Amino acid sequence: SDIFSLGIVLYEMLTGTLPFENIALAADPTYAPPSPRQLRPALPPALEEIVMRALAKNPVYRYQTAAEMQTALKRVPAPLDWGATARRTFAGVTLAAGLAAGGLGIRSCEVSPPPTSTPALSLTVATTTPSPTVTPVLTVPTATEQTPTSTPKPTLTPTNTLRPVIPIASPTPQGD
Fold this sequence. Notes:
It is a single chain. The protein is mainly α. The protein has a two-stranded antiparallel ribbon with strand order 1-2. The protein is built from six helices and two strands; from the N terminus they run H-H-H-H-H-H-E-E. It starts with a helix and ends in a 37-residue tail after the last strand. 7% of the residues are buried.
């Protein structure tokens, strides 16, 4: 009965339907369920034979032990899962492209010296000859100069914020 029950579970797993619509069909010695390949033609014939043998009404025709059935199941060739193959191929190509792009990016990077403390903007007055007019020259930092991007650490500033007054109920005098 265990092999028969396993045959029912395998049939349902492979086809998505039960082999017997009701208990009367399961008990009827003349009724045989439709073959799994009628419902799913892509199933291997060897797997269909194993399921149908497990569903045999006469126990003599079933597998006699679970180990015997397991041996038969191990001999069934595993079908190629095209969806999994496509996902693995896509992941491999994506990984290879990422590594190639990363390798190119690393080669094109240059190591720059650490930034020095220089003012972001400076106003310089340059005169070449003594003249009555002074020409101011404004220097703008170039792309290679680094300007500090961090902000100073916040400090705690005490405030004199008044807290809201909560009225407290006073006891009312009791009448004498």
